Design the sequence.
C-alpha cells in the first residue's frame, strides 16, 4: 500500500512539473512579440493628418480629394442625393488606413463607391500620444456636395 501511494505521489509530482512547464511555455508564447500597443486612440496629442495638394488642413484636403477623385456613377447622378455620409477608419502607425466602415450611409450603391474612394486615400500622417505614433480612429463626415463635384458648403 505504501509503495502504491509512493508511486501515485511520484506520478502527481511528475504531472505537476509537466503542467507547470506547459503553463510557463503558454505564458511565454502568449507574451512573445506582443510588445505592440494595439490600443486605438480617440483623442491624440497630435491628430492624424491627411495632406492633399496645397491644402492647409485635413478637412480641406479630404474635401478636395473627394471632389477630384470620386466618380459619381451615371446611374446614381439622377437620384438627387443630399445630406452626408459618415465613415470611420483607423490610421495605423505606418500611415496606412484600416477597418474602414460606414457609420451613416445613403444607400448601398452610393455607400459602396464612397468606401472605395476612401480606400484610395494615400497615406495619412499618424496621430501621436506622448511623442509616440499611435493607432487613431478617424470619423470622416463626407458632404454629398463633394460627391457631385461641388466644393461650396
Sequence:
Amino acid at each position: 500500500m505504501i509503495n502504491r501511494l509512493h508511486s501515485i505521489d511520484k506520478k502527481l509530482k511528475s504531472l505537476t512539473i509537466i503542467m507547470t512547464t506547459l503553463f510557463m511555455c503558454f505564458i511565454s508564447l502568449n507574451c512573445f512579440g506582443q510588445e505592440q500597443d494595439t490600443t486605438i486612440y480617440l483623442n491624440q496629442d497630435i491628430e492624424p493628418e491627411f495632406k492633399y495638394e496645397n491644402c492647409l488642413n485635413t478637412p480641406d484636403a479630404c474635401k478636395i480629394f473627394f471632389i477630384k477623385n470620386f466618380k459619381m456613377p451615371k446611374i446614381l447622378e439622377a437620384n438627387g442625393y443630399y445630406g452626408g455620409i459618415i465613415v470611420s477608419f483607423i490610421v495605423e502607425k505606418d500611415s496606412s488606413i484600416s477597418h474602414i466602415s460606414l457609420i451613416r450611409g445613403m444607400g448601398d450603391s452610393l455607400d459602396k463607391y464612397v468606401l472605395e474612394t476612401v480606400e484610395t486615400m494615400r497615406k495619412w500622417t499618424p496621430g501621436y500620444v506622448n511623442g509616440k505614433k499611435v493607432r487613431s480612429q478617424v470619423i470622416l463626415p463626407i458632404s454629398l456636395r463633394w460627391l457631385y463635384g461641388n466644393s461650396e458648403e
Q: What stands out?
A: The helical segments are 2-31, 58-69, 74-77, 108-119, 144-147. DSSP finds five helices and five strands in the chain. The first strand starts at residue 40 and ends at 41. The CA atoms of residues 19 and 92 lie 39 Å apart.
